[in-house]
Amino acid sequence: MRFKVALLPIIFMMLSFQNVIVNSAYAQEGDISHSMLSQLKLAVKKSKNFDALKNAVSNNDLQTLALVRDQVGKIDHFYNVTIDSIGKIKITNQKSSGRCWLFTALNVLRLDVIKKYELDSFEFSETFCFFYDQLEKSNLFLEGVIDTRNLNFDDRRVEWLFRHPIGDGGVWNMAVALIEKYGVVPNEAMPETYHSENTSSMSRLLRTRLRQGGLKIRNMAQERKSITALREEKLNTLSDVYKILIASLGEPPDMLIWRYKDRKDQIHEWSPMTPLAFANQVIAGSLQDQVMLMNDPSREYYTLYEIEFDRNVHGQPNWTYINLPVNLLKEYAKKSLVDGYAMYFSCDVGKQLNRDEGILSTVNYDYESIYDIELTMNKEERIQTFDSGSSHAMTLVAVDTTASGATEKWRLENSWGAEKGHNGYLTMTDCWFDEYMFRLVVRKDYMPENVLKILEQKPIKLHPWDPMYLPFEDQ
What we know:
Blueprint: H1 2-26, H2 34-46, H3 50-58, H4 62-66, E1 81-82, H5 100-116, H6 126-147, H7 156-163, H8 172-182, H9 194-197, H10 200-222, H11 227-249, E2 259-261, E3 267-269, H12 275-282, E4 290-294, E5 303-307, E6 320-323, H13 326-338, E7 343-347, E8 353-354, E9 359-360, H14 367-371, H15 379-384, E10 392-401, E11 407-413, E12 425-429, H16 430-436, E13 437-443, H17 449-452, E14 460-462
Parallel strand pairs: 4-6, 5-14, 9-12
Antiparallel strand pairs: 1-10, 2-3, 4-13, 5-6, 7-10, 7-13, 8-9, 10-11, 11-12
């Protein structure tokens, strides 16, 4: 008995040694080995005051710790070039939805209505446009399924379609397509509902129904059914989509009567008209006279690009943009603001945003000092690695310049409600504009002829999974 007990430690040692041999036998080049793990641990132990750092970070909000105290209060919210109606208009609120692109486009256009009809404030119905956006995107997906019916299911385009059948995000050209086809109405003609302000559950239901319909269309195509039969099945799916939208968002009006009170307290009433006639009456100029510009240093400048599937209305072209150096975008933006025109603007809003102060500055937070690490990618590298992209759209409404004409900061009208940021606005430093701004829509009047000529180029088509597509604004 004593002999057996004495053997136990030896047996355990032999088993442990055998496990080491077995484990090392399974080790592959590139694995995290025991020696590598030891090096990682040693590197941390060599860091000075690491225990204090660990205690601070693990027990506190990281953004609070990283806030650069010396920068707080250094940036004011005053501007020497601004849109006249700022301070009077009601700040919109997209709530828990990804409709910032739609709010921004309509906020840009409403400024013309406010000026033209001498109003204190005005808001278009985002729900009206969103209803048709979801219907059109559903049709676009199903048509995409029909177009790719002969490709294998693991083809990247087919996979992309079924991964992204519908969403509530978008870009400027999608708003233009909706307005030109369906028109617009005042907010009171089709107000917000629970599901317009909280889109997630409706979106999940739509995605499921569309994927089901898309799969059936593909199966029918494998059975050699005719295009007519496939489109009949598409109509069946769209019928269910329409039911979901009507129940969730309400029914869009076919006719409307607009009554409003101007700044002189005079009440005006318009005769009944269609939403399309209303749009033609109140929206100044042609929407086609505005051009989407991009600053993407990872691609060639002075070049026209389009992104496949980047639209919502099937019969409309993909989103097309001119890629330009950032200094030109600033030049056109300043000219527009001086003349009183706001612009659609999109950016990577989450980077270095001080939500409490409503400040976008590249020096708001210092994460490198906390962790003793370097985070040194430039804009081009952040785009290429998907570390940065356009995530949110807002309305560019003001610029502040020095006596010499140098730009210091810009003002953005947001759609997160008046209680967020600085009374509903964000102030962006000129340096932040360089690093995290992506898209700007400018009227052709403020662009030189040599840049407008780029629109005549045959655009370079990018894949729908390109970094400039995903995410949509607020997708």
